[in-house]
Amino acid sequence: MQNKKNIFILLFILLLSVSGCSLSFKAEIPSGFAVSKKKGALVIYSPDGLKMRIKTEKNSPEKDTLFWAEALKTHLENNGYFLLDEKPFYSVNLEGTKFIWLMPSGHDYYKYMTAIAVNGKKIYIIEASGEKELFDSYEQDIEKIMLSISAIK
Fold first, then answer.
1. Residue 131 to residue 129: CA distance in whole angstroms
2. pLDDT tens readout for residues 77-133
3. Residue 96: exposed, middle, or buried by beta-carbon count in 10 A (0-12, 13-18, 19+)?
4. What is the pLDDT of residues 120-140, one digit of tens each?
5. What is the DSSP string of the chain?
6. Cα–Cα distance between 7 and 11 in angstroms, integer?
7. Contact 125, 114 (CB under 8 A)
8. Euclidean distance between CA atoms 61 and 65, whole angstroms
9. Shortest CA distance to 95 belongs to which of 113, 115, 114, 117?
10. For the purposes of burial, counting CB atoms within 10 Å of the CB of 72, is it exposed (0-12), middle (13-18) or buried (19 or more)?
11. pLDDT digits (tens, 9 = 90+) for 23-68
């Protein structure tokens, strides 16, 4: 009887911990990448240091993708990021804007990708960053992950 009670308690704790980590989206991650969930975000790591994060924020005040994309762009430009590219992106059920930024750091350059899409009451934010050469080598994997993102209602 004590064993059944311990098993029940363990299952209950496991259920609570899993339910607290639920995400409001799904994404397909290529093999070889490590994945962790942190505070409602999915954080993806390449074996050699590229980091990508997918997260959501409340759409408050409630605005459309164009508004939030312009706010993000203005903020990063005002903080010294150099815009390399801006274009639309599409995933399973999201449409948004993707920016590629260049940022000098000492003798190196880093690329930083930010993408933003609004779906109802949520803002979906996708980020990837790494040294320029590293980022460039993973650009196809970043695109595959972005294309696979599916908002869950």
1. 7
2. 999 999 999 999 999 999 999 999 999 888 899 999 999 999 999 999 999 999 999
3. buried
4. 999 999 999 999 999 999 999
5. -HHHHHHHHHHHHHHHHHHTT--SEE----TT-EEEEETTEEEEE-TTS-EEEEEEEE--S---HHHHHHHHHHHHHHTTPEEEEEEEEE-SS-EEEEEEEEEEETTEEEEEEEEEEEETTEEEEEEEEEEHHHHHHTHHHHHHHHHH-EE--
6. 6
7. yes
8. 12
9. 117
10. middle
11. 788 899 999 999 988 888 999 999 999 999 999 999 999 999 999 9
| 58, 85 Cβ separation under 8 angstroms | no
Cα 34 from chain centroid (whole Å)? 14
